[in-house]
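Problem 3 from the worked examples.
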Amino acid sequence: MKPAKTRQIRHVPHSWDEMPWGDYYRDALNQHLQPCLDRLYGFHLLKIGQLSAQIDTESCAISHQVNVGLSGENLQVIAESGSLPFESKSIDACLLAHTLAWSSDPHRILREVDRVLIDDGWMIISGFNLFSVLGMGKLIPGLRRQVPWNSRMFTQTRLIDWLSLLNYEVVQRTRFQVLPWNRQGGKVISTHLPALGCLSIIVARKRTFPLIMNPAKKAAAKRRLAPAVGATSRMRQRHQDSD
């Protein structure tokens, strides 16, 4: 497995129109993100990266929405994704639409997003699926350096592992748009074989309690509980004997 951090310089697209079928990807993301956006609530929504800024989030109940990026149109804050100029635990939800796909250090971005998110805040990540028709283009030497094949296509399993280390609970994950050159993504094949979709979405919530109890702590809790249970039984027996 390749390391997450890299020094490789990649051409980062500033809009969906800079990549083949990019408007299809944007429209498909707009459609599949709507059910999730409708559930969000709070005061502040961050859309991190130039591609995130072009996603339609008008249906979201969070009224204060801020676009953050280094360059591009419709940005309210100019900043790096890995150095957000916001206070800790001040943001309710963050949208990273293909932000990690062109990042040299995705771990840093995830840690920074985790820092600014409130407890039980939402993190929405989209990206390209390596095991798809689009991902197969990485095997063709002439396409590797072109957008979008020059992007980093992390698997959902790998992203979920990273999120679990930060104590996030994945509440939704999906793949869609099996045929990238088709505006509808190929309705029939997308319905029956969604795992081959070239686009991927993961929705996760920040949790403050451990999602899985440490076995050592669980055993220690049992040892502390056992004497107390035994003492209760002995007191009950003494009471019965005195009667």
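Problem 4, a separate protein:
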Amino acid sequence: MAVLKYEEIAEFLRARIAAGDPGPGETIPSGRELAEQWDVSRATAIKAVDVLRADGVVVAKQGTGFVVTETPVARPAGARRAGSARILGGMPFLRIGTPDWAEPPTHVAAALRLSPGAKALRRVRVLQLPDGTPNSCVEAWFPPDVAEVAPRLADTNPIAEGTTRYVRRQTGRGPAEGVDVTTVRLASETEADRLKVPQGAPVAVLLHTAYDEQGEPLVCEEGVTPSSFFEQVDTYAM
């Protein structure tokens, strides 16, 4: 499938930002400048910037234009369909600790098709509401065949081009199918601490696994959301 011009511009800018030029807080070229550089209409250039804005890579700053975001932005686990956390867009997040290799829980290991005792790369983040209140905590687990060829996954710094695009670029594999399993239970001590809720508070758990074109797992994310912030909505024909 041919890449549209605005997508090409957006990917070029995303790669530059991922390389640190421009860095956080710095301005990206204006729509007019991009239109001149790429010999496209201003509307096409603005559409490219809108892609980055929607992904949380840049934000509008009055009197300046669009600047690279100082705060990394992520989406809840899953969020590819209607049923998910009530807030579906990108949200600021805090990285918890340093990505590490660990043995995942049994249900995550099963989703990733790992042998007993095998380790995966774990990245933990807490997504926040505008006032800083924790909305959900997400543990993302990457199997060895992905993490070992995508070294930036082990870095604490945000990946400006987006984790999915980075993994695709490093491995040549992209998500073709997602499986979301939603359950409810009580928050563990660790989850309660991350979410600032009492231990044993009711939470919704969304286990999202992404598979590539060959049906091999790319990542398994477990998102935990307090019941007050979770709402599943399904619309279907009758």
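Solution to problem 4. Residues 7 and 48 are 6 Å apart (CA to CA). The chain has a mean pLDDT of 87.
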